[in-house]
Design a protein that fits this description.
It is a single chain. The chain is mostly helical and 437 residues long. Helix content is 79%, strand content 0%. α3 packs antiparallel against α4. The longest helix is centred in the first third of the chain and has 28 residues. The mean pLDDT is 80.
Length: 437
Amino acid sequence: MEAELWGIVVAIFLGALIGLQREYTQQHIHLKRFAGFRTFILITFFGAILGYLGKGFDSLFVIIGFSGIIVLTIVSYILTYMREKSTSATTEVAAIMVYVLGVMCTTGNMQLAIIFGILIVAFLTFKERFHNFAKKMEKKEMMAVVKFALVSLVVLPILPNRDYSPSDIPGLTQIFESFGINSNFLSQLNVFNFHQIWLMVILVAGISFVGYFLVKLSGSKRGYGLIGFVGGLVSSTAVTLSMAGESKKNKKVYTPFVIAVIVAMSVMFIRIIFEVAIVNSSLLSIVLVPLIVMAILGFTASVILMKKDSKKGNLEKIEFKQPFALPPALKFGLFFALILFVSKIMQILFGSTGLYITSILSGLADVDAITLSMASLSKSGEISNFVATTSIILAAASNTMVKAGMAYFLGAKKFGKIILGISLLILAVGLLVLFLI
């Protein structure tokens, strides 16, 4: 009974939240629709009651209620069109959706209802920005969206979801045995799961995809901190290289460029946490604390620098590549598979020491591949959670030092020295925390 009561309370809250947004919009555009603040509350309340009475979406109560809401919204749309000649059906669609949210709250789907409700509010609130963004969208970006959808929703489901080893390739076992490598060793290298490998490609591409469009939406002159944040989702390396070039051109002003790079580096740590949480959440109990500490140190350093620097420079546009292209995705997939393969060999031959060496070397080029590889191996029980976490931290440290080196050797002297100093401090504290927990 208590769960149902909480469900009704949450339903009312979601109805109020979405209704408030709709009421706000109607007041500002001076166009009255059939549903506002109170009506949306009543609709979710209605859905929650029927969900509780019927105990499921297939209940006659819920179906009748849903049919009634559909009829109500259709009549509303016709009357509004006749009166205002408005073709917008946003409020009517939102009303149908909040009824479903109300039902979800009392049928065991309250957490999903909360997530969906917040997303609905976000979509409604940023409606104008989405429209403006669509107007500014280039053909190559639209093509990138279509390609990403194809590889995510079409290619992924048809890939086999099972582990393969080199011994599964006909004739390869005999070739390796002629070189003294036995079939038992080859069978242990069962790390090639094409479904999982492509899923990792989609995950990394998706993060970069979101980051690219955040840059597009926010613009490139909203401040160095914001550029560092959204740029870190796309490529912290791109931000570092861009800011190093800017520091060379503007040697008297260096603080804003430092802020962008440090924020981008800090976002990288948050990005790693996100990837680990998706692939193997059991690692979070170990990896979360050191990475959060490293991220907080980076953000704190950026805030201190922001307070010291009151001047706002003119930021040149940071050039990122198009949001999704198939060749880079395939390259990452091959690199990820290679890291899995090499990591497994090193683990068999040299134990955890081999994995640590692999992590440091792979981190020089890319931190996502080794993060996802270690998370996958630990999830399958191939390595311990501590070894996986240490490998991920070492890769992050290696990658961070590469960026610090780029800043030091490619940027202005003061810019490079500050980046190097902050990076060393972040890494020293992060590694210390890792070995203390």
